[in-house]
Amino acid sequence: MEHNIKVEVENNNILKITGDVKNIDDYQLIKENAIKLRDKGAKSLTIIFADSSSITSSVIGFFLKLVQKDGVNLDVKVGQDSLLSLMKTLSLDNIFNVEKI
Amino acid sequence: MSDPVSFSYPNTKHILKSLSILIVEDEELTLGILSKIISPYVKNVFTAKDGREALHILKKNDIDLLITDYWMPYMDGLELIKEAKAKNSDLPAILITAHSDGINVADAVNFGISRFLTKPVDFKKLTSAIEHSIQNIIIKRLELSNKQKEIELLKYKDKHHQSQENHAYAKQLNIIKNDLSNSSPTDDIIKAKHIFYFHHYYKPFEILSGDCYSMRKLQDNKFFLFILDTMGKGLSASVTAISSTSYINHLINTNQYNRSNSLASLIDKYLYFVKDVLLDDEMICGIFAVFDFDKLIFKFTNFSMPPIFLKKKQNKIIKLNSNEIPITKFTDKFEIKTEELKDIKNILLCSDGLIEAMSNNGDIYLNSIEQDLRNSNYFPELQKHIQGNIQEIPDDTTIFFINKLSIKGFFEKNFTIKSSNSEINFFLTTVYSRMENLNKLKHLAPTISMILNEVLINAHEHGNLGITPETKSKKIFNGDYDNFVAEREKDIDKNISVSFIISITNKELYLIVSDEGKGFSPHIMSKEKPNIENYSGRGLKIIKTLSKDFFLNSEGNQIAVIINLAT
User: How far does the CA of residue B471 sit from the closest CA of chain A (Å)?
Assistant: First the structure.
């Protein structure tokens, strides 16, 4: 698998993602790390996209499932205006509590 | 033991059970007796030995009735009632007096005392006084209960109407036929010299709107569009619009156009139908147009609708004004006009909702539309200009936008990859690293890569694997989507073709991706509205957000995405 991103886990409830989220491998990496934290009992996750200008629809679908089925609260922090704008365009800013870093 | 307290009305007992009463009396024995007799019939009895204590209780509790002796230490009963009423003017109060108290009755009435009782207290008079004093409470409770019932009834009616409206709107969308939006009649976008493709925007003012439309595919590379704006009163106009749309689509479905090959004949048949439907004072505005992309002409009749706007070379705008008055019960002739499509770049047809909207400059939008069209090569660009000019596209608006595009450039590269997640990933990574090594594309590598990812995933999952958006959403919810895709991949041996064409002149990249699936229906795409409950369907929205425009081929298994290289 070839990843364009690096995922760091902090305090068992923070995922810090650096690099651009571009393909299925990136999605898988984010998913695996988020599921590990969920399975450890995290009820609230902070996902930081430090510099990604967008995210893929697969990641969005997975996040929606995390919130709505698994009951995990997400706080998504984004570094890039373009990602903030995409989240607003897709009306996901409220459900993911999206904020600019 | 007989009940010492009896009331004239059966409801009184019921209401009393919800009330709190304050009894103020400095004689402990009288206070105790009054409290003991009244307690079983009310929710709470509060007692106070003087006015100061009483005011404290009134401040801390919701008291519904005050019963007070007149002669007490610190303040008399009248002063207590005066202070209590200053805080709650609706509080009913009963004053208990001795004959020797010498109260001024006029003053007492002015203080709003409901009833007087004289000592020693007669229990029949006490119950009568209580019953009289709480009459206002009984009336208010009754009003509240009736209001609540009315609200419940309104809520029920509203729910019923909402359900009716939802069904009516679903029916309206079912009657409207859209074979063309977001798509081109071209089979193979790469091979075509010139591509015409369609977009539409439809926002009805109300359910069963007077605005209706359809976009239909005919035979021999011909396409029929119509917009109707029925003028008249509310539902009557809606019935005309819906029945007209149903009838015209029935004519198309039963090959009536293809048999006669004549727009005039089609309109004749429609007029024959609708003249029987119209009331004497009703009329219909409408545009009927047939586009022939082989002969590069279009024929139309415009019954009092806004002009058709054509953008030609050098961004020259031509307005084709209405050539007929509105259709009425008495319309018996009309003229068909013909225009060439040769030098056309864009065509805009719309209903009057758009051109009559007020611009930010205080003028109607009709006076700004030509400039906005001149500045827009693609429909999303035009929408942005419109929104910049009039804040929001108004309700009861229908817009058709036809774009002519030549996909050619100095650079063209074609690839074929196996339809699998691992191949797609490898391809994406390779393309990304190549773009990163090209100075002119480096800054666009993330955007292009993200669009390419969404397009390839759509081609793979929805195209080649034939996974419906509903199945995808359900599987993501259950957490087994990735395994489901992996299993499906094993059973197929299909490819995805990818072409990159760069136009230096237009500073655009045309990304064309084809799959070997059955293809998307434009009708489904035009209805597609992902919401929070759906776990799929955002890919196209991401493509739309990041690109200049996109459209599908006639089969729906090839997508062309136009990407801006100027930034």
Answer: 13
- At B470, list the tokens: 């509903």
Beta pairing partners, B562: B510, B549
Across the interface, whether the CB atoms of A4 and B432 are under 8 A apart is answered yes
Task: Tell me what the pLDDT averaged over chain B comes to.
Answer: 86
Structure-token pair, residue B8? 């004239």
Residue B358 forms beta bridges with which residues?
B364
User: What is the C-alpha to C-alpha distance for residues B513 and B456, in angstroms, rounded to an integer?
Assistant: 7
**Is B559:B529 a contact under the CB 8 Å cutoff?**
no
Question: Which letter does DSSP use for residue B392 in this model?
Answer: S
How far away is chain B from the Cα of A46, in angstroms, using its nearest Cα?
20
Band of pLDDT at residue B526, cut at 50, 70 and 90: low
Confidence at residue B301, expressed as pLDDT on a 0 to 100 scale: 96
ipTM over 0.85: no
Distance CA B496, CA B112 (A): 88
Exposure string of A12-48, with b = 16+ CB inside 10 Å and e = fewer, is ebbbebebbbbbbbbbbbbbebbeebbeeebeebbbb
Nearest CA in chain A to B539: A57
Per mean pLDDT, which of B168-182, B413-427, B517-531 is the most reliable?
B413-427
C-alpha B165/C-alpha B183 separation (Å) is: 30
Each residue of B56-106: pLDDT tens digit? Answer: 999 888 899 999 998 888 888 888 988 888 888 888 889 888 765 666 666
From the CA of B376, how many Å to the nearest CA of chain A? 21
Tell me the pLDDT band of B152, cut-offs 50, 70 and 90: confident
B105-111 contact pairs (CB < 8 A, 24+) = B107/B78, B108/B78, B111/B78, B111/B81, B111/B82, B111/B85
Which residues of chain A are within 8 Å of residue B426 when distances are taken between CB atoms? 2
The amino acid at residue B67 is: I
Best of B417, B472, B482, B538 to mutate (most A CBs within 10 Å, chain A)? B538
In this complex, the residue of A2, A23, A53 whose CB is nearest that of residue B453 is A23
Strand segments, DSSP code E, in B204-354 are: 211-217, 222-231, 283-292, 297-303, 308-312, 317-320, 337-340, 344-350
Of A2, A68, A90, the CB nearest to B425: A2
Parallel, antiparallel or unpaired: strands A44-49 and A73-78: parallel
In the chain, the amino acid numbered B491 is: D
- CB-based burial, B511-539: b 16+ in 10 Å, e otherwise: bbbbbbbebbebbebbeeebeeebbbbbb
* pTM for this entry: 0.71
Residue B413 dihedral angles phi and psi, to the nearest 5°: -135, 130
Q: Would the CB atoms of B532 and A95 count as touching at under 8 Å?
A: yes
pLDDT digits (tens, 9 = 90+) for B280-314: 778 899 999 999 999 999 999 999 899 999 999 88
Could you tell me which chain B residue has the CA closest to the CA of A65?
Answer: B477
Residue of A nearest to B483 (CA): A28
| More confidently predicted of A82 and B311 | B311
Q: Which of B223-237, B318-332, B422-436 has the lowest mean pLDDT?
A: B223-237
pLDDT confidence of residue B411? 87
Q: pLDDT tens across B121-136, in order?
A: 887 888 888 888 888 7
| Closest-approach residue (CA) in chain A for B446 | A20
Cβ separation B539–A57 shorter than 8 A: yes
Phi then psi for residue A12, to 5 deg, are 60, 10
